[in-house]
């Protein structure tokens, strides 16, 4: 699978990449996930221990995967949320739930370790992502959960239903966990 999606977070960090600290985890579960040219366990469970995100121009891209290896040889989830400023502001009053993809939230899976021969773009549809906490400062916490169906990104083919995603990370923004980039 070679498709990705992403999630935006905090304007304060515009122009930098930040990595989850010592405490980070994510779990994606789906009772059945069927990809062409790929044999996956049923139920499909992906345990992840690496979190990275980049915020730029009111867009946050969040990547959660198994280890800090290159996406090309890893399994993981990439999320994107437009208009992060609004999400952060709403979080001041409590949890924020966005419809996927209607509210500018997109989620994609990449299974380049488990399914290296499958080129099916895998994305979330018909779901929601809920931000429980999003404090993207040193020592802050990122907690989110999502529920969605998994589709072939090129067509309406359903590859899995009722997928759940849970992510929690302690944020580290200090070296060596911060690499700065220039926004376009």
Whole-angstrom Rg: 15 Å
Q: How would you describe the oligomerization state of the chains in this entry?
A: single chain
Largest sheet, in brief, is: 8 strands, antiparallel, barrel
**Which fold name fills CATH's third level, the topology?**
Lipocalin
Summarize the structure.
By secondary structure, this protein is mainly beta.
Question: Which key terms come to mind for this protein?
Answer:
single chain, 184 residues, mainly beta, Lipocalin, eight-stranded antiparallel barrel, 53% strand, disordered N terminus
Can you tell me about this structure?
With 184 residues, this protein is mainly beta. The chain has one domain: Beta Barrel (Lipocalin). Helices cover 4% and strands 53% of the residues. It contains 1 helix and 11 strands, in the order E-E-E-E-E-H-E-E-E-E-E-E. It has an 8-stranded antiparallel beta barrel. The longest helix is centred in the middle third of the chain and has 8 residues, at 84-91.
Topology, element by element:
Elements: E1 16-30, E2 44-48, E3 50-56, E4 59-65, E5 75-82, H1 84-91, E6 96-100, E7 105-111, E8 122-134, E9 141-152, E10 158-172, E11 178-180
Antiparallel strand pairs: 1-2, 1-3, 1-10, 1-11, 3-4, 4-5, 5-7, 6-8, 7-8, 8-9, 9-10
């Amino acid at each position: 699978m070679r498709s990705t999606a992403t999630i935006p977070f905090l304007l304060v960090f515009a122009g930098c990449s930040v990595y989850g600290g010592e405490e980070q985890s994510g779990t994606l579960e789906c009772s059945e996930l069927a990809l062409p040219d790929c044999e996956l366990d049923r139920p499909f469970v992906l345990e992840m221990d690496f979190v990275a995100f980049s915020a730029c121009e009111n867009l946050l891209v969040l990547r959660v995967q198994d280890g800090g290896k290159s996406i090309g040889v890893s399994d993981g989830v990439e999320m994107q949320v437009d208009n992060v400023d609004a999400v952060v502001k709403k979080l001041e009053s409590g949890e924020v739930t966005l419809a996927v993809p209607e509210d500018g939230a997109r989620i994609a899976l990449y299974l380049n370790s488990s399914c290296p021969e499958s080129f099916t773009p895998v994305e979330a549809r018909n779901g929601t992502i809920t931000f429980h906490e999003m404090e993207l400062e040193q020592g802050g916490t990122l907690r989110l959960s999502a529920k969605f169906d998994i589709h072939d990104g090129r067509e309406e083919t359903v590859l899995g239903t009722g997928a759940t995603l849970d992510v929690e990370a302690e944020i580290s923004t200090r070296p060596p966990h911060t690499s700065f980039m220039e926004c376009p």
